[in-house]
Amino acid sequence: MRALTWHGKRDVRVDTVPDPELQDPEDVIVRITSSGICGSDLHLYEVMGPYLDVGDILGHEPMGVVEEVGADVTALAPGDRVVMPFNISCGHCWMCERGLHSQCEATQVHEHGMGAALFGYTKLYGQVPGGQAEYLRVPFGNFLPVKVPQGPPDDRFVYLSDVLPTAWQAVEYADVPEGGTVAVLGLGPIGDMAARIALHRGASLVIGIDLVPDRLTRAAARGVTCLDLRAYGKDIGDAVRERTGGRGTDAVIDAVGMEAHGAPVAKAGQWITGHLPDAVAKQLMEHAGLDRLSALYAAIDIVRRGGTISLSGVYGGSTDPLPLRTMFDKQIQLRMGQANVKRWIPDLLPLLTDQDPLGVDGFATHHVPLEDAPQAYNDFQAKSDGMVKTLLRP
Question: Which residues of 370-390 are buried (b: 16+ CB within 10 A; e: fewer)?
Fold first, then answer.
């Protein structure tokens, strides 16, 4: 089959690799029909090389059609249309029974002290082959795949793999009071969708902050009050307070994460780490790693006293400095973590039936063949050609 594989920093290629095979009686083989490129994929493209091997298959936002099922699979049959959550969960362990599917005890990566394994994502999360490919082996076939109706285009359902549950959890964790206010830092796919969900769930004011004109225009068209970071710079907190009675928003969603703009020292550190031998780079990342924390620092400034910060942007540093005095004094609540995808599917599926209140049908800005994925990665990282969300078509 053809699959997108990692070959080094900013070097991904479409190669011919062996087809996946059933390995367990509960496995299914899925023929992929759509697979998204995620902002988290750019972390692999840029900074996570020490935890990847040449030839690793990327991608954690796939959907497709069941081709083959294991002997113990009763919930699916060939021909069923399914979406695969990005985190791999069994559905019956202690964590899964409590809705913490991203911490599944059956797939935790104990070697690295990490939570549930992920499709297409580094040794830290199990190094499981991903879904930017023609076929995908999916474990826990009786629980993990999300069966969706035939008929509507893939764009209606593919975001159940990551974008929708991650954005939904970001809003849930933000704990916006009824009729309250929320600021969303970063209007990439997750931030954009989180802003839409916050408005759908009744927020009276959603402030979106970014510095990419296309993203600001796109969010403004959905009713988000947009602030261009290029215009406000370090005064962005004052701009938010001017619109919220001098207090700041009830909640802030940080949808940016470790590769925020600014923070030149941390940026330089990431660049140096990316050019070190893997063994040295791993030690540096695990014992002295720093993220670019510009977005998180902004969130701490913007949120009102007694408010909540919800982190959905990925952070990977081991020694990130936080202004705990300020956080304590402002009585800030902080929630974070990988989305528990299966936990939120019952909330999301009703929004994807006859109506489309979140605008998923037009959410993708680009649809490209799998063979063009390397150029799509380059364009997405450069934020060029108006690219916000790309779906690959194997």
Answer: beebbebbebbbebeeebbbb
Q: Given this model, what pLDDT does residue 105 score?
A: 98
Whole-angstrom distance, CA of residue 137 vs CA of residue 30:
6
Using a CB cutoff of 8 Å and minimum separation of 24, what contacts does 271-278 make?
A: 273/47, 273/50, 274/9, 274/46, 274/47, 274/49, 275/9, 276/50, 278/49, 278/50
- Both tokens of residue 215? 């993203």
pLDDT for residue 166 = 98
Residue pair 268/297 in contact (Cβ under 8 Å)? The answer is no
Q: How many CB atoms lie within 10 A of CB 28?
A: 28
pLDDT exceeds cutoff 70 at 313: yes
Q: Tell me which residue of 53, 60, 47, 38 sits closest to 10, measured CA to CA.
A: 47
Residue 269 reports pLDDT greater than 70? no
8 A C-beta contact, residue 151 and residue 314: no
Rounded CA gap, 185 and 257, in Å? Answer: 9
Chain centroid to CA 270: 20
Q: Phi/psi class of residue 223: alpha, beta or left (left: φ > 0; alpha: ψ in -120 to 50)?
A: left
Q: What is the DSSP string of 78-131?
A: TT-EEE--SB---SSSHHHHTT-GGG-TTT-BGGGTB-S-BBT-TGGGT-B--S
Q: Has this prediction a pTM greater than 0.85? A: yes
CA distance 88 to 264: 35
CA dihedral 324, 328, 333, 338 (to 10 degrees): 10
Q: What is the DSSP string of 200-265?
A: HTT-SEEEEEES-HHHHHHHHTTT-EEEEHHHHGGGHHHHHHHTTTTS-EEEEEE---TB-S--HH
Residues in the chain: 394
Q: What is the mean pLDDT of residues 84-96?
A: 98
Listing DSSP states for 349-367 in one string gives GGGGSS--TT-GGGT-SEE
Both tokens of 88, joined, read 């791999």
List C-alpha distances in Å: 125 to 65, 71, 122. 25, 27, 6
